[in-house]
Amino acid sequence: MSSLANEPAFPFFNDENLYPGITKREYFAAMAMQGLISAGKENFIINGNKMNLDTSSFYIADAMIAESEKNVLT
Which of 21, 46, 19 is nearest to 32 (CA)? Predict the structure, then answer.
């Protein structure tokens, strides 16, 4: 897993303490899951693979992160 995936999505400081909150990967997966739930299905076919809701959410999150890293490195 990349370092970008493990960066905090919404870090905040409080009295000089850093609270990292959730990771970018977890945030992207949560947003993907929200969209998939709104589709009203429990199983999805992604790139020819049958996936359940949580697996497909993290697959989408990982794809988003991989694409972001390509744009950062170029």
Answer: 46
The torsion angle over the Cα atoms of residues 4, 6, 9 and 11, rounded to 10 degrees, is -120
What does the DSSP 8-state code read for residue 33?
A: H
**Distance between CA 26 and CA 62 in Å, rounded?**
10
Upper half-sphere CA count for residue 57 (Cβ side, 13 Å): 21
E strand or H helix that includes residue 13: strand 12-14
- With tokens 């970018």, the residue in question is 24
Residue pLDDT, tens place only, 28-66: 999 988 988 888 877 788 888 888 888 888 989 998 888
Residue 20 CA to residue 71 CA, distance in Å, equals 24
Cα–Cα dist 71/34, whole Å: 25
Q: Where exactly are the structural domains of the chain?
A: 12-73
